[in-house]
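Quick start: read one record
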Amino acid sequence: MPQLTWLVTGCSSGIGETFVQRILARGDKVVATTRGDVSRIAALADAGAKTYSLDVTATESEIKGIVAKILEGGPIDVIVNNAGYIEAGLAEETSYDHYQAQFATNFFGVVKTTQAVLPHFRENKSGTVVFIGSSGGIGGEPGAGPYCSTKFALEGFHDCMKQEVAHLNIKSVIFELGFFRTKIMHPDNVLKFRSEPIADYDGIRDLTSQFVDGINGNQPGDPKKAVEIMIDVVKGEGVAAGKEMPDRLPLGPDCLATMRKRCVGNLTTCNEWEDVIRSTNVEG
């Protein structure tokens, strides 16, 4: 496959940083972005990446302006919407402001950045949009309402956009990640239970907090393995050679179990309730 140029958001650590490292190792070009000063990703610049400051919560015009500057350096073939964080909170306790903040980064930031790149893809009649989803976008978990809500929203955006741009030779894929050993679950990165607690939820809040603290540094997934597979899928190489690009791909046995449980559960409901479901049309 010819050399590609990738634009990756949220590259200061974790999956984004690994993406840039592995893209360069595969011989492709990459534009790495981060919120704030680009000195945060100086090591990626030293490795050969072009670096830009891009805050996905900025205004539409600001994001479009930065993308325009990036495109002055040459075309982009792939955008990886990676920037995001976790807001842990219970559904009733989490304030509306904290829901808004979570959506501003994890969903609306993705929408704005994707919309800034799509005109370029439309003009070239090619391009690939990569969304970093989550097992939390397949099945919700206690204490993860704000985060899971954004990932569920991302699923819908991907499904709609994929159909709308297909005739323009623009591809879209969402990778559903389970628990991978990055810093996303570090106490400095997870915003936990920032609203007033409700006594009725003390038990479930404590269990959720213990889980978050315990999983940090103990996630089963290897981010390098996941990123190599994602690059293979985009390029149609390695494990993806000869295969059609999937709409969505779970990565990690834990995410596979979550997806399989949801799919089997939905199918069971359809089968058990089919007569009732079909009985709702207007007579005649």
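DSSP finds ten helices and nine strands in the chain.
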